[in-house]
Amino acid sequence: MDFQVSTTPIDGKGGLIVSIEGELDIATVEQLAEPVGTAVAKGRHLVLDLSACPFIDSTALAFVLRTHSALAADGKAMAVVAGRGEVRKLLYLTAIDRSVPVFAKRGDAVALLGASAATSAAEPRSSIATPIAGRPSA
Asked: What pLDDT does 51 receive?
C-alpha cells in the first residue's frame, strides 16, 4: 500500500483532519510535518485519522505525543481515530490513549473538538482537560 496524507478542514470548528493511508513509520512520518505543523502554527484543533493506517512504529508514536503536547500548550485539542485494529491496540499498550483521546469513528473525534472549542473560549488555556476515550479490552 502506498503512503498518502490528506487534509480536510473542519467547518465551524477551527480544526483540521489529517488522514493517513498506509504504514506510518520512520520512513513516512516526516510527510506529516507540513500538514500537522500547519495545524500547530495556526492554533487549530487536530484530528489525526489513522483508520486506514495498518501499522505505526515508535517514531510515529513519539510524533503523536509531541504534536499533542504542542497543541495542548496552545490550548488546542487533538484526537486520534484508530478504529479497532492493531494501531488502536498499540496506542492502548503504550498508554498514549490516556493522554491523547482515541476514537473508533471520525465523527466522535470531531465532536470532541467542538466541545474543546467551547471549553477553550470559556476557560484559561492551561485548564483544558482532554477526556479519555473508550479503551479497547486487552
From this structure: 96
